[in-house]
Amino acid sequence: MSGGQETAPEGALPVAGPRRTRRAALGLVRRDGRAFAALLALNALAAAAGLAGPWLLGRIVDTVRAGGGVGVVDRLALVLLVCAVAQLLLARYARYVGHRFGERTLDRVRTEFVDRALALPAAVVERAGTGDLTARGTTDVATVGRTLRDAAPEVSVAAVQALFLLGAVVLLDPLLGACGLGLLGSWFAVRWYLRRAREAYLAEGAAQSALAELLAATAAGARTVEALGLQERRAAACQEAVERCRRTRLRTLFLRSVLFPAVDASYAVPVVGVLLAGGALHGSGVVSLGVVVSAALYLRQVSAPLDTVLLWVEQLQSSGAAFARVEGVGAAMEAADGTASGKPGPSRTARRAPQVPSPSPADGHRDGRDGPYGCAGAADRIDVTGVRYAYPGGSGDEVLRGVDLSVRPGERLALVGPSGAGKSTLGRLLAGVDAPSGGSVTVGGVPVAGLAPEVLRRQVVLVTQEHHVFLGTVRDNLLIGAPAAADAELRAALATVGADWAARLPAGLDTELGAGGFRPDGAQSQQLALARVLLADPHTVILDEATALLDPRTARHAERALAAVLEGRTVIAIAHRLHTAHDADRVAVMEAGRLAELGTHDALVAAEGAYAALWHSWHGDGELPSPRV
Q1: Whether pLDDT at 524 is above 80
Q2: Homologous superfamily in CATH for domain 362-618
Q3: 512-513 and 472-473: which strand pairing?
Q4: Percent of the chain with pLDDT over 70
């Protein structure tokens, strides 16, 4: 991987290249440039104060050899003590400034990561897997945070100290300073390490993400795994992922086991060289004994800051790989938007809003309403024209092949067809979750995928069998649908979907949901989701097995709540059971990614075509083996 190139397997989130990662890191430094400059200045002053110790000790040695008095030695010792205290205070304050710089920068990293993650299209997240995104937002961001808070101040202090110490030896005597070249051994060892470390740590991070994704998928599908008897197979897959993590971890441990012994050996070379060369030069009267002692102490002290740097090298490499993965989310966001600027992006709403044509369909879709939640008007019309779609990273085969369809305002349309016919894919395109590979999906003449989220939710909403409850209060969960809604509107929406339980909560709308608070069951979670739809007030609702995961008694309550939400709206139902199609105004039959038939239930049954075969099969008098469509 070179330059700013972003790499990733098919469907996975990319990893930022070294150039982009460096540019992002420098951008973070520039955004808090004064604090970083103060950090460097304080470290330089602390290092300068630390140089006084060995030099003063050398002066004391020379004074004693020359027969100087106790008063001179006491004064030199007092100055040495003052410099040591000054170094301590400056170094501690430098670390304080560095930690504050790190915390502020970490806050920016976290905020930008959340903005970028929220800006990712749902299809990108689904293809990559939530495990990878979760690992980047937790483990990787935490690793970057530790580096910004701890490693950056420590390494900057140590690097300045090491440079000052080596410079001091050269100033004392250039010949003795040349002995510092013995430290080149550590430079070669570090260079060997750095050439291999980045890829090793990226592999380790990828293995951990894969394990997290596998464990999350196994836990989420535990009932399915048990029902199908897949325990051994899933356990074997998890064991394989754990073994892959172990191998990548051993690789990074091997690199460190080579680096640290080589560096430790290189520390002794300069000190031995100074003692040997210094002894010869002192014997020849070229340098004093104090100079030799000071030079030896300086070179001995170099090991401490270099140790600090090397101890953090692993963290810096691990953090560099983690930062590359965090920045990869930004690359994925930009790829979804068709950009490659490499700059931190604003939220999805802010970026996409300028893409909405003017006037938007929202300008007209309220005209002709029959009731508070009803809709009618030309701006509500949905048109599918020549739509083609193939999933990115897949085999390349098209799931949809030239689909043409118009949905009239206020009608109920059922999408039916065999499994794999493209029903759910078409539903996602109608809802703006994905954009077509070819052709167009428009509402009121405006491409659905180009609408900003706050405009899109007023047009088309997709309701599936997954009803997510967000951490926060009941009010927080409802305001997602209508951020400006008053409490009276929230309570009215809850009442409409039959969520009477919400009024009995101890803190009402302020009741916390999730861990440590109220835990809604499946039906209550769906009622919250439907209340959000009601508050968003879209003119079109797309249903994809909205009650499939609920038990029969709960499903009846949910269907009554759903009926209240659908009143007066355009409804597109992806019908996996044909009783839905029977009650629809029109039925669209999908086969192999194409629209095979379109018409009323009675007309299609009478036509004895594809829909009639499905209908007869569902009633048990046809040849198809399964009633599920």
Answers
A1: yes
A2: P-loop containing nucleotide triphosphate hydrolases (3.40.50.300)
A3: antiparallel
A4: 82
Token pair, residue 413, equals 């349309």
Class (C level, CATH) for 18-349: mainly alpha
Top pLDDT among 481 and 337 is at 481
Instruction: Quickly list DSSP for 67-100.
Output: T--HHHHHHHHHHHHHHHHHHHHHHHHHHHHHHH
Phi, psi of 237 (to 5 degrees): -65, -40
Domain boundaries, the chain: 18-349, 362-618
Confidence of residue 386 (pLDDT cuts 50, 70, 90): very high
Tokens of 262: 């080589």
Give the H/E segment covering residue 42: helix 33-65
Confidence at residue 547, expressed as pLDDT on a 0 to 100 scale: 55
Residue 228 vs residues 233, 465, 626: alpha-carbon distances, Å: 11, 21, 19
448/433 Cα distance (integer angstroms): 9
**In this predicted structure, what is the pLDDT of residue 343?**
40
Torsion angle of C-alpha atoms 61, 64, 70, 74, degrees rounded to 10: -10
DSSP state of 345: P
State the chain's mean pLDDT as an integer.
77
Radius of gyration of the chain (CA): 34
Contact 425, 441 (CB under 8 A): no
* pLDDT at 565 exceeding the cut of 60: yes
